[in-house]
Amino acid sequence: MASKPILYGADWCKKTIAIQDYFKSRQVDYDYINVDESEEAMQAIKDMNRGRVRFPMVVVGEQKPMKNPSPEELDDALGQHH
Fold first, then answer.
1. Which SUPFAM superfamilies does the protein's record reference (predicted)?
2. Cα(78)–Cα(14) distance, rounded to whole angstroms?
3. Residuewise pLDDT in 10s, the chain (82 residues)
4. Which residues are CB-contacts of 8 (< 8 A; sequence separation ≥ 6)?
5. Is 7 within 8 Å of 78 (Cβ atoms)?
6. pTM above 0.90?
7. I need a surface site. Which of 5, 20, 47, 50 has the fewest CB within 10 A?
8. How far is residue 8's CA from residue 79's CA, in Å, rounded to a whole number?
């Protein structure tokens, strides 16, 4: 079992909502961090993107952080093959 993914995003962001829907549709337990509500999360986003604010970002275990991953990329990262 892959480690629990962490989603960095914002409630108003359509791409963030799409990733939340992906996780829900596959019953994947995940942590959601709203970058609008956390300076630390905003800094983490910048650290992942060479100082730029880019999201949604998904982090799965020790894998490389993914910027706005596709469902296929998420499937691969989570080891879910349909």
1. Thioredoxin-like
2. 22
3. 558 999 999 999 999 999 999 999 999 999 999 999 999 999 999 999 999 999 999 999 999 999 999 999 999 999 976 5
4. 33, 35, 41, 44, 45, 55, 56, 57, 58, 59
5. no
6. yes
7. 50
8. 20
